[in-house]
Write a structure and sequence with these properties.
249 residues; 75% helix; Helix Hairpins; 5 helices; 2 domains; mainly alpha; 4-stranded mixed sheet; rod-shaped; 4 strands
Length: 249
């Protein structure tokens, strides 16, 4: 059976408390509510991204259609203005004037048709721009929400990390004075048993597994020499006896 000074065994409980606190801080860092918020916002942003791309593409396509429709109208208008200038100049023969006048009338009809097309495309563009504005506003809201949640996460992590460094420093200070063999056994058990390598024996119960020791094991633990390292027969953890549980109490 391993041995270690009784005071080192009792100090081991302080180390265990510090290690438990470190585990709690790690858990807090890993499960901070902001992380779930960020994950949900990332999912919503990903879902919205397709709509955003489609809406922007539709607006871009319609803008090109409007530009083309405007150019077509402008081309016809320019041609009609040039014909009118020729007609107004008085330099054309009667036959040529009739031909130019006929063309002006044809261009007017063509311009009317093109202006209707231009108006229809502009109306569709306006509708898509309104839709895009709504999608972009929703996207901006999600981005702002993620930025806020990320800032909350970073602030919380900074606070947790600062606390963790303090606990680690205290743990190193306390553990530095312990029996090397006892500490090595404790670290080995802690790794094997979910982070809890040592527990107090109080009132005949192991506070690691929360089970009452049977009368024989309890008697053996109480009768063991103070320097002997006692293990719980149920969970295998180091049992740290309190003064009233130790031999000779």
């Amino acid at each position: 059976m391993a041995t270690a000074p009784p005071e080192d065994q009792r100090t081991l409980l302080e180390v265990q408390e510090l290690d438990t606190r470190l585990q709690q801080l790690v858990h807090q860092r890993r499960t901070h509510p902001s992380l779930a918020t960020i994950a949900e916002l990332d999912k919503r942003l990903a879902d919205l991204q397709g709509s955003l791309v489609d809406s922007r593409t539709a607006v871009s396509d319609l803008e090109r259609e409007v530009a083309k429709a405007e150019a077509d109208v402008a081309q016809v208008r320019t041609r009609a203005e040039r014909d009118q200038q020729r007609l107004d100049s008085g330099a054309l023969s009667a036959k040529d004037s009739q031909a130019v006048l006929s063309e002006i009338e044809s261009l007017a009809r063509r311009q009317s048709v093109l202006e209707d097309v231009e108006l229809e495309v502009m109306e569709r563009l306006e509708a898509h721009q309104e839709s895009l504005a709504k999608v972009e506003a929703a996207h901006a809201e999600l981005v702002a929400g993620k930025e806020k949640a990320t800032a909350e996460r970073d602030a919380a992590w900074a606070e947790i990390d600062t606390a963790g460094r303090g606990v680690q420093a205290e743990r190193a200070r306390v553990a530095d004075s312990l029996d090397a063999g006892l500490l090595a056994l404790y670290d080995k058990l802690r790794a094997q048993l979910g982070g809890l390598g040592a527990a107090a024996l109080r009132g005949g119960r192991c506070e690691g597994c929360r089970l009452e020791l049977n009368p024989g094991d309890l008697a053996a633990a109480r009768s063991a020499a103070p320097e002997q390292v006692v293990r719980c027969e149920e969970c295998g953890r180091i049992l740290v006896r309190q003064p009233d549980e130790a031999a000779g109490a």
